[in-house]
Design a protein that fits this description.
The structure is a homodimer. The first copy, chain A, starts with a helix and ends with a helix. In chain A, α1 runs antiparallel to α2, α2 crosses α4 and α5 packs antiparallel against α6. Chain A is built from seven helices and two strands. The longest helix of chain A is centred in the C-terminal third of the chain and has 29 residues. In chain A, strands 1-2 form a two-stranded antiparallel ribbon. Chain A is mainly alpha-helical. The interface between A and B is large, with 57 and 57 residues. The structure holds a DNA duplex.
DNA sequence: ATTTATTTTCAATATATTTTGAAAATTCAA
DNA sequence: TTGAATTTTCAAAATATATTGAAAATAAAT
């Protein structure tokens, strides 16, 4: 397979993959393109490579920057802005985990804590099932929370070495 | 807070939460409703509780069944079908992980293995960055794959006990 | 200060996804 | 069988999301 073909395939499937995870397809594609680009590239390069509009590139790039996955780069002497992506995939993964934890898991756990305090007869079947469901989700959620916290603080080798100990 | 209010809040936010994870909002809401329902309920109950159409309920219920999260229940003497959800949240989580691994991670890893074999000068900067990106994603992916496999085979206590050892 | 290159915004448009609801199919009882 | 209850399907409509492109804003050079 030729590089150009492989590139296209990777960008396209990374986009599809991302869309299963609440990340918009184009954003994931831009991210893919930046990850495989050895040097920083411009908005125009991205527009051309993915055949999408300037506005689209601009918005998604800003989104990627807010996720901490892409950086603006100023090349001296150049007027245009350049962009580059974090290349260490472990850092990419922990960054995504950190952000999603903050944006989604944390608020959910906060809400569940509130919902646990409902008034009503604890003997009532409906009440009982509700409280049990909420508290078991909360419990699982906070385990996940702690685990993700530790994971994202550890570096890759440390984390995987640790896992090996558990998983024989 | 009253039960009815708490129920509404839980259903609504579980729906929003799900939609960040590629699960459609209504499907997640139906799932939430079933999890907090102590006894099996009918399509009509769901229609009424969530004020959505019969077709919508039917399609999403089937989807939930295909995910292994909901079961059809036939109550003897009753004509209508009843539905019930798995209540053990650890089982719910591992079931979701298993399915998503099968549907998303496995195909992605398979594709990456193909993309690694591109022809061209390995000294070329573009080729080098491409191959490095692909192989590092593949490596991380297969670590995740192994870990998820073990997680979903283990039971909750075993898994958490194991994690405790690693994470002090 | 004016021009020119570049980035950003956002209303309009296009695309994708979800939902409806009524018709068709199925299931069960009489 | 026939018919009533129930489930399923799916084209059309509604809704939500993504994309465009040109105008406004910003930044740099002259």
């Amino acid at each position: 397979m030729k590089l150009s073909e492989a590139k296209q395939q990777f960008i396209s499937s990374w986009g599809a993959f991302g869309s299963h995870w609440g990340i918009n397809r184009t954003m994931a594609q831009i991210h893919a393109l930046l990850m495989i680009s050895p040097d920083p590239i411009t908005q125009d390069d991205i527009m051309e490579e993915l055949t999408i509009s300037r506005g689209n590139v601009n918005m998604n790039i800003r989104d990627l920057i807010s996720w901490g996955l892409v950086d603006r780069v100023i090349l001296s002497g150049e007027r245009k802005e350049y962009f580059t992506a974090e290349k260490d995939i472990w850092k990419v993964a922990t960054q995504i985990i950190k952000e999603r934890k903050k944006r989604e898991l944390d608020p959910m756990l906060k809400l569940l804590a509130q919902l646990e305090q409902i008034d009503g007869d604890k003997k009532n079947k409906e009440v009982k099932q509700f409280v049990e469901t909420i508290s078991s989700i909360k419990k699982l959620g906070s385990h996940a929370d702690k685990m993700l916290d530790l994971m994202t603080k550890a570096d890759e080798n440390w984390f995987l070495a640790g896992l090996l100990k558990v998983f024989k």
